[in-house]
Amino acid sequence: MLQLRSSNSTLIWSRQILLIRQESLRRMALLLTLSRQLMTLLRLTSLPWTHEPPPPQNITLDDYAESKGLQGSSIAMAAVTVHNVLRRQHGAPLLQWSDECAEYAQKQADECQCNGGLSHGSTEAPSGSHGQNLAWSSAGIGAGWSVEKAVRSWYGEIEEYDWSQPGFQSGTGHFTQVIWKSTTHVGVGVSTDGKNIAANYYPAGNVQGRFPENVEPLLQGM
Question: Residue 21 — pLDDT band, cuts 50, 70, 90?
Fold first, then answer.
């Protein structure tokens, strides 16, 4: 009986040691996972663009493009670059070019020329609903009118935006779409006469109830 009890005690003690070891291994695995996640987070937060000071608002497209090693003056390069110059001043993620957005923007730019005035349309696409900004100038592209000037004119509505009451406000919808944080892609079209410029955005901005988290003021020092 004494030996039996002794054997049982030894067995119980062995099981306890095994459980302790298993718990230790589980905790070590958890710490390793957390460590890897932390390293990933540190790599993401140390990306160059997140720490590089945003360009000043009055920087020209050519100067910015040259500083980034970009060449040419294509509509795509101009559209993406000037949008991102402005968005970074508000901490908004950088936009990428979208062929789908450009296709639908081109349709609307041509439609505006055909109708002899600005009108919204061509926003329902395979990927979903697009946001849209439009601009017109009597001077065509290359004659004092450009994609950069159109985008900066939209952004200029910042002067009318009331930051104390975030939300859709008359006369500021172009500005809020330009810097809308959840928008990830843009595409631009120019009418054949060079006077109408349309920009389509995906996902669409200016969503009621989502302004506070998507339209943020200028970063400190801007």
Answer: confident
Q: How distant is the alpha carbon of residue 50 from its chain centre?
A: 13
pLDDT of residue 7: 45
pLDDT for res 142: 76
CA distances from 198 to 106, 168, 214 (A): 7, 21, 22
pTM: 0.68
- Cβ contacts of 29 within 8 Å, gap of 6 or more: none
Q: Which amino acid is at 171?
A: G
Can you tell me which residue has the tokens 């009890």? 5
Residue 96's identity, in one-letter code, is Q
Question: What are the C-alpha distances in Å from 149 to residues 77, 135, 143, 219?
Answer: 14, 10, 12, 23
For every residue of the chain, which 3-state class applies, written as one string? CHHHHHHHHHHHHHHHHHHHHHHHHHHHHHHHHHHHHHHHHHHHHCCHHHHCCCCCCCCCHHHHHHHCCCCCCCHHHHHHHHHHHHHHHHCCCCCEECHHHHHHHHHHHHHHHHHCCCCCCCCEECCEECEEEEEECCCCECCCECHHHHHHHHHHHHHHCCCCCCCCCCCCHHHHHHHCCCCCEEEEEECCCCCEEEEEEECCCCCCCCHHHHCCCCCCCC
